[in-house]
């Protein structure tokens, strides 16, 4: 019976596992610490947004609603013309549609969208899952610091400190 | 007491029926909670139910209440009478098993002279209920499951009986109470300190009994009849509500009863060395309970550790290994019985 050592080994595995503490986190009683790059909720850094609409157009679910307007900003140098900038009237993400693919975060050319690991934003009414730009801005506080660059990697030229 | 004569036939019978009727769900809930819910979870690095009652201990009670509330559905083309009767037949086989199990020197429903024979006979009644359930469901997968169950239970009935024969030969009696006494008074090489629990002298029989009981209970390495993934619980597929609850209770009630028979045959039943007389009457059920849990632990440990046998492997295991081994065991026991 060559199978017997393997059979006993199998019993040993379950026996050992039985005495180890469970990996389960009993969630409502104990809050789980999600991994730092977990996809919990998308945060919006409003001042970086240029209303380019890339995120809204790439969104597979069409769950991002953007309206913007042109505004004048003071010139960069003395005596220059006032600059034209785009500002947000509305930036809504409908989390009842969002499928957490993260394409919007990826395509944003100006680093206005970030993943936050926060996940406790369930609502009683489905309409309340539409987060407006103020609410999306509040999530910015929960966005973790970006991971440190790898050794030898250069900081991007002209990056604002 | 209260003007009732508790020794009257109807009074003792009522008490016995009530005790056994409450033992089946109690045993099923204990085994279901301790092993199915908790131990299996720990072996899979989970916690199991934690919310219903302290550490989830009332989960099965809650499940039972849920089953009672469910709609009682008959499949459109089912044979209604047979369909309704099947779970009762299965539960009745479990119920009858409890009659001959002794829980103390005087705590036994009926000490039959052919106790173990009776137990093994009524345990095979469940095959009938399972076949009725599979046939009357008017569902081909239920029928496949029932036929698999019938093939398996008949194949494993044999090693089960043959493993028990070794014990019967050594004890010289078929009464379970007599087997307990034979173990209590037994001696190993002239030393009678702990009696002679037959697990020591009948170890081969014990292993065969355990494997065959595992198959009789359709616990996992032998769970082809109820294979979740291919037959969707086999003969139970069409059952809902309290009829399904009957099958569930019968499964775990039978596991409890088979553990009790195993504990009685091989671990000395209610007997612990040094406990005699009235004290044995009081301690007996607890001692038997502890031994039941030990046997049930083995059964469920194996259940949670191994994957399912294929049908041919399952049959080969019974006919090619268990039956020859138990036959050799009987011969060896007989020879030794004559020699010593």
Describe this structure in words.
The complex is a heterodimer of chains A (161) and B (340). Chain A has 161 residues and is α+β, with helices and mostly antiparallel strands. Chain A has a domain at 33-142: Alpha-Beta Plaits (2-Layer Sandwich). Chain A contains four helices and five strands. In chain A, the strands form two sheets. In chain A, strands 2-3-5 form a three-stranded antiparallel beta sheet. A two-stranded antiparallel sheet of chain A has the order 1-4. The longest helix of chain A is centred in the first third of the chain and has 16 residues, at 4-19. The radius of gyration of chain A is 24 Å and the shape is elongated. The model of chain A has no long low-confidence stretch (mean pLDDT 87). Chain B has one domain. Chain B has helices at 9-43, 59-69, 80-97, 115-123, 125-136, 140-171, 176-185, 198-201, 203-216, 228-231, 241-266, 277-305, 311-339. Chain B has 13 helices and no strands. Chain B has 340 residues and is mostly helical. Chain A binds chain B through residues 7, 10-11, 13-15, 17-20, 22-24, 26, and chain B through 39, 41-47, 50, 301-302, 304-306.
Number of strands of chain A: 5
Our estimate of the beta-strand percent of chain B is: under 5%
Sheet with the most strands, sense and barrel status of chain A: 3 strands, antiparallel
Rg value of chain B: 21 Å
Biggest sheet features of chain B: none
Task: Kindly report how far apart the N and C termini of chain A lie.
Answer: 70 Å
CATH topology of the domain at 33-142 in chain A: Alpha-Beta Plaits
Distance between the termini of chain B: 51 Å
Task: Identify the overall geometry of chain A.
Answer: elongated
| Pattern of helices and strands of chain A | HEHEEHEEH
Cα shape of chain B: globular
Total number of helices of chain B: 13
- The strands making up the biggest β-sheet of chain A line up spatially as 2-3-5
What are the secondary-structure elements of chain B, in order, as H or E? Answer: HHHHHHHHHHHHH
Cα-atom Rg of chain A, whole angstroms? 24 Å
- What is the level 1 CATH name of the domain at 33-142 in chain A? Alpha Beta
Number of strands of chain B: 0
**Overall domain count of chain B:** 1
Strand content of chain A: 15-25%
Which architecture of the domain at 33-142 in chain A does the CATH hierarchy give at level 2?
2-Layer Sandwich
Structural class of chain B: mainly alpha
